[in-house]
Amino acid sequence: MRYDLIRAAIAGIPPDVSHDAVGSQAPQVQEMYAPETHAAALDPSIPIVVGSRGAGKSFWAGVLGQESTRLAASIAYPKLGLQRLKVGFGYTGFAGAEGISPAVLNNLVGQAPSLASATAVWWGAVVRACAKHCGENALDIVSAVKLAADPIEREKALEKYELSLAEHDQVLLIVFDALDTIATSWPRRRLLTEALLDVVWSLRAYRCIKSKLFLRPDQIDDDALRFVELPKLRTGAVKLSWSGADLYGMLFSRLALNDNEQERLAFSEVLRYLQISVPSGQTELLSRTWPLSHDVELQAATMDIVAGPYMADGPYGFKKGKTYSWPLGHLADAFDEVTPRSFLGLMVAAAKVGALPTNRAISSEGIRQGLRAASRTRVDQLHQEFPWIKGVLAPLAGLLLPQVPQVVFRAWKTAKTVSRVQEDASEHNYLAPFPGKGTEEDLLVAMKRIGVMYSRRDDRIDMPDLYRVAANLLKKGGTAPLA
Fold it and tell me: Is the pTM of this model over 0.85?
């Protein structure tokens, strides 16, 4: 077999699969991979989708927002009625014709917003999307907010849009993405979130006008939110998650449909050896009829050929773990979740380390080095979302995990981490890890909330390898840090 070509195919996969809901980074049909469990993320009847960074929130928001990808998604999820769906945006985090940008949102709600003014802005985003997609003259956002602030006029307008959509047997879904960018202070974020949830709850009165929010877990799980119907919305929310079978299915599908003919044929040789059909095209993958999309045993057999069966050679190599399951276990965060970005990052890095091994495309040592690369990338990506994270991890470098809380707190106190993080958040205008002054205990809670730390049954603090390796913390028997 041409292991060199398979290795080149893996190394050539773009490891950063980040997307935006709109613009030049919106998802394309050829990039789509549709796990069965993600059907709810596109279901118009489900208003809240929760996912951590890299789980695919903006990807699915972008799929919904484009007719070409929406029609492709209808192949993957035929029961959702996506063909009759019209989609508008209420918020995307970007300036442009779709949705409200952060700057416009700040301008509309003012420096000291009330719940009523914030609610009017979100209703305005709904009214503007309705006007745009129901054949009327476009409303600018200021006019839309002014109309929406009057409950009588707003309900008249929405009822008119509802009737228009019903006559054409259509549903308008208004998508809100990148909602972590709506505020840089805790009180403001909570107020804007509560106002938006109020609008979402009220839209239940309409059959043809629906909304969908893509939210981070920490935003919807904020215990300080005071919206009365929040428990019901939380119960009805769906979580974006990726199983090991989903991740390997995505990897192998990219190899099977590689644009490079030689590399594609090299992987096809592996498929023929295992008596697995070669996929005919994207439709077969979207419909999940290709065996490597879901059959764990076949995926493991494929990985045995690509990387060898175990993470070490010799008669006792099995003690080090299987090459199929090892990446999944070491890439999981504290919630036991693995994202496509981390998984592909590990595999791509593994294919770039060292020389081509004998009778395989990537080596066990390459996979370990891939974990180090994925860990570094994950922390860098997390830093974009939580700019305080590196300053919190740095004082912990060199600690041996698991560790009692007092030792972790002492390291933070010695470095004055809490006060420095708060000062930096204020100076650079980003959301601090907790509201108010806070303590080391509050900082630990914040780290647990985003899946970077967790407590064992004996109350000792631990950290998943996904973060520990890049943060230079130690663990007996674990993969060594980056150093």
Answer: yes
